[in-house]
Amino acid sequence: IMKRISIITSAVLLACSCMTERIGDPTYVDTAREDIVDVEFRITSRDSSATRSSISASETEIEDINIYAYSGGRLENETYIDSPKSVSLSLARGKTYNLYALSNIGRHEAPVSEDELLDLKLSMGYMSSIGEGFPMSWSKTGHTVSTAASGVDVTLVRLVSRIRLSLDRSELENFRVRAVRLCQSALCVCPFT
Q1: Fewer beta carbons within 10 angstroms: which end of the chain, N or C?
Q2: How far is 43 from 131, CA to CA, in rounded Å?
């Protein structure tokens, strides 16, 4: 009888060790059953036509985009696309994500920790280093993926500003501007704070 009890106990323990789900662990996700869907990101930029300038960089041009998806403070997926109109990213259905985008900065590898991304500082340098488009960013927290056809609208916002100088010389006959210097401007920008 003792031999049969030990064999039955061993069989039950072996069967329990082969279970695919962890009973009582709410953070466990069974990746074999997890539905992965392609979430489409529809990319646009906010029109800031109130300011005009003679420099060539466009306020609405999107040359490239980096998109990052974080869940539980950890990077789940990322993508980089040149000349995007729409982008898709594979995410788990029913899971909640914090989503981030950076545009017109070239390829930027996302840090594994979301806190590191939130502390990110981008050096702006000189205006001549900006290509066809201004650097832009976007974020959305608490997005839950619901269906395979789910999409996310991404409206990018500029990270830098244009400054326009206008002088009325009608009362100043001999006044000439030889140079203009902007002082105390930021040399870096924090896109997600």
Answers
A1: N
A2: 19
